[in-house]
Design a protein that fits this description.
Blueprint lengths: L5 H14 L1 H13 L19 H6 L11 H8 L14 H21 L10 H13 L5 H14 L8 H19 L9 E4 L7 E3 L4 E4 L1 H9 L1 H16 L2 H11 L2 H15 L6 H20 L7 H17 L4 H11 L3 H5 L4 H9 L41 H8 L7
Parallel strand pairs: 1-3
Antiparallel strand pairs: 2-3
Helix pairs in contact: 1-13, 5-6, 5-12, 6-11, 7-13, 8-9, 8-10, 9-10, 10-14, 10-15, 11-12, 12-13
Length: about 400
């Protein structure tokens, strides 16, 4: 009998992978990526049915007429310094219809289903891709968890903690659960671990991970109020999906990431449809490529994302009956130094942005001004007991309406 060729063996292996364990994992992926927009016109799924990249590059991008005006698109892309923006969805078909209608949907399919190169993208193409990178999430939660595991691996084995350090870490984990419960749509669980390779600071990673240095853990154990601010700030990065947005933007705005970004968008556009061969190849090859890409990527957040995280931190602190002004002062006095501070916008800029969020409702301790009344902080907030005043405010416009009507807000 003739020996099977290598290609035949590979194809059979991929089919078995897709039909077995991979299919179980992909089922969850497809549910999250399933399009809900009706009437989206699609060409054939194969690149061979459409024009080649040369023809696409030579022809101008079609005029796009979406459901949203240019002003609405600009507002959606603007920084969210009030922590009020609706959470992003997995449905890129719906966002494309909002952005540019049927023309945008067809244009994206033409870009990802051909050998279109990054250098061939027009200015209109780049604007559309930026919109998708910042307003949608097309990297599934199951894949994000795998990326989070990569971050843990790169962080190495955690150090041996002393009893007080272990207690402080447990308290941070418990506090993270309290903050998480303040927001109904928080994406997944939060895990905090000590990274011995970090010289300083705390950093939000993929999959709800927060890594902190040993020195930061020691500081947080001694400064409870400042620790609550740092924790709320890093959790806000997770809530706003900043790590994923940075990754998505990197994939769609660089020559090195473009081919991989096309494969991910191509899978997202197919929604819930399942093709054993194509999806088996996607799971077996594209996801490992994404993991390798992340391994070599330097993750960082821009200044606007840092200010967004500050805004959410202020809101969550108020909901937890913690005075944000006292927490901010404790942070500035004990934490705003070293490399961790260098990773964030200038302290003066953060202070102005934070002050805009410190408009308290009157309480037994008296009203707070827009500049942030410092309140009775005791020993600069180090005890963690002072400054815990202020009426809880809503975490979203819907919650604010419910509170104004005297209704109990469900958490």
């Amino acid at each position: 009998m003739k020996e099977p060729s290598f290609k035949a063996v590979l194809a059979a292996s991929v089919l078995l992978l897709a039909a077995g364990a991979a299919q179980a994992q992909l089922t969850d992926l497809f549910k999250m990526l399933a399009p809900t927009s009706a009437g989206v016109i699609r060409q054939a799924d194969t690149a061979a049915s459409g024009p080649g990249a040369a023809a696409l590059a030579a022809s101008p991008a079609p005029a796009m007429r979406g459901k949203k005006s240019a002003a609405e698109i600009a507002a959606e892309l603007a920084p969210d310094r009030q922590c009020q923006k609706v959470q992003e969805k997995f449905d890129i078909s719906e966002k494309l219809m909002e952005y540019g209608g049927t023309e945008a949907s067809l244009r994206l399919q033409a870009l990802v289903d051909s050998d279109f190169k990054y250098s061939d993208l027009s200015d209109d193409d780049r604007r559309m891709l930026r919109y998708l990178a910042q307003t949608t999430v097309w990297i599934p939660a199951s894949v994000e968890q795998r990326l989070g595991s990569v971050a843990d691996e790169l962080g190495g084995r955690g150090p041996e903690l002393k009893d007080l350090q272990r207690l402080a870490l447990d308290e941070l984990q418990q506090q993270s659960q309290k903050f998480r419960q303040l927001t109904q749509d928080f994406p997944g669980e939060v895990g905090i671990r000590v990274n011995p390779d970090l010289a300083d600071g705390a950093f939000a990673k993929f999959g709800g991970r927060i890594q902190i240095s040993t020195s930061m853990l020691n500081l947080m154990s001694e400064n409870t109020l400042g620790a609550e601010f740092v924790l709320a700030h890093e959790m806000a990065h997770i809530y706003k999906r900043h790590a994923l947005k940075h990754l998505q933007f990197s994939l769609l705005s660089s020559k090195d990431g473009w081919d991989l970004g096309k494969k991910l968008l191509q899978r997202a556009q197919r929604g819930a449809s399942f093709d054993p061969l194509r999806d088996g190849m996607f799971f077996a090859f594209t996801i490992p490529q994404l993991v390798n890409y992340v391994r070599g990527m330097q993750q960082h957040f821009n200044d606007e994302q840092e200010l967004e995280a500050d805004a959410c931190a202020a809101q969550w602190l108020r909901l937890a009956a913690v005075d944000p002004s006292s927490a901010w002062d404790s942070f500035r006095s004990a934490f705003a130094t070293g490399s961790y501070d260098a990773e964030h916008p200038a302290t003066e800029e953060r202070a102005k942005n934070f002050a805009r969020r410190l408009v308290f409702e009157p309480t037994a301790a008296g009203p707070k001004s827009a500049e942030g009344d410092k309140g009775d902080k005791g020993d600069k907030g180090k005890s963690g007991k002072a400054g815990r005043t202020g009426k809880a405010v809503a975490a979203s416009p819907a919650d604010a309406k419910a509170q104004s009507e005297g209704k109990k807000v469900s958490r």
